[in-house]
Amino acid sequence: MKCGLRICAFILCLFMFFSSSALAAAPNNSAVSTVLIDCDSGRILYEKNPNEKRLIASITKLMTALVAVESQPDLTQKVTIKQEWTRAEGSSLYLREGETLSLETLLYGLLLHSGNDAALATAGFCADDVDTFVEWMNQRASDLGMTHTHFQNPNGLNHEEHYSTAEDMAKLAIACMKNEKIAKIVATKSISLEGRTFTNHNKLLWQYEGCVGMKTGYTQMAGRTLISSAKRNGQTLIVVTLCDPDDWKDHKNLLDYGFESYPQHTFFQKGYEIAQIPVEGSLLHSVAVYVNEEISYPLTQGEQGKASILLPEKVTAPVKEGSIAGQVTVTLDDKVIGESYLRYGASIERNAVAANQGIRRMLDLFRSRETGSITEVLLEKESKN
Q: Using an 8 Å Cβ cutoff, are 93 and 115 in contact?
């Protein structure tokens, strides 16, 4: 397929997109540190002391669960409880030495009931020892860009070397929401497994429409910590607060603010036909080009997105369906906020021309005669052969 790859052979089209959403004043909140973030784009919609290092208590367990699920994806595996895992302080499932539970049951106990002993059992089972598992937690934090975070244990108990920030925990929360197994667990209100019943500590699952879970935490030194997530009109938002005495109210207000002031704007849907490109070397005159991936981004009042579309002026057959034709890039204030390949929507064979050349010559001969029929033309053609 010849596409004419010279720069001058490409068409650059610009589209402008405007948001009509009103930007309301961000609500006051009682937290020391706060982040409101859009889950899909990673855009921070509100922040307050986002990079201040603080104790984080049991929201630590989101990282424990993420590392566990990624290292041991078979949650049906059986875990035999060791004595050292039963000695955790604070919130507990009251695990007994020698009893056997599935990894899935431990994870529900970890995230719904916030069992500190479940955290030790999960870590010890997945990595053979807790210290190694904590190393994995810190490596995963580094992978996620959590540059102001360090874990010292899998349960969040107070330690001077165990800390994070609101922004870093928002990055972790996004990774957890994108993991189907963890997202399912944190969205569960109540469940009974292997003779144990777990009820989620996250009151927002009952109190806020669209809440899809996350994690609570508390120690006297850390104060109340909370991560919540909610979905509305296809958009998912996450709120993180650290040391917030009025966290339930603050999360409701921040989620309302985010959905109302920064709704998701879809620039291009997946499969949208963006153009028709002329085709040379075929009876078909053009081929459709479609967007490969949806491009969406939260916009507020007065913001203007700009889409740049790069495509060839024409293409020469053969063309293969699904092959890359060009690219669309969406920017906001000169920052790229979304992009997608553009692909051809059909295959076009070059031999379509050759197969029809005889017919074209016959039609030309027919048109050149002032009298006679097509039968006469065919007979004359046959006699000459």
A: yes
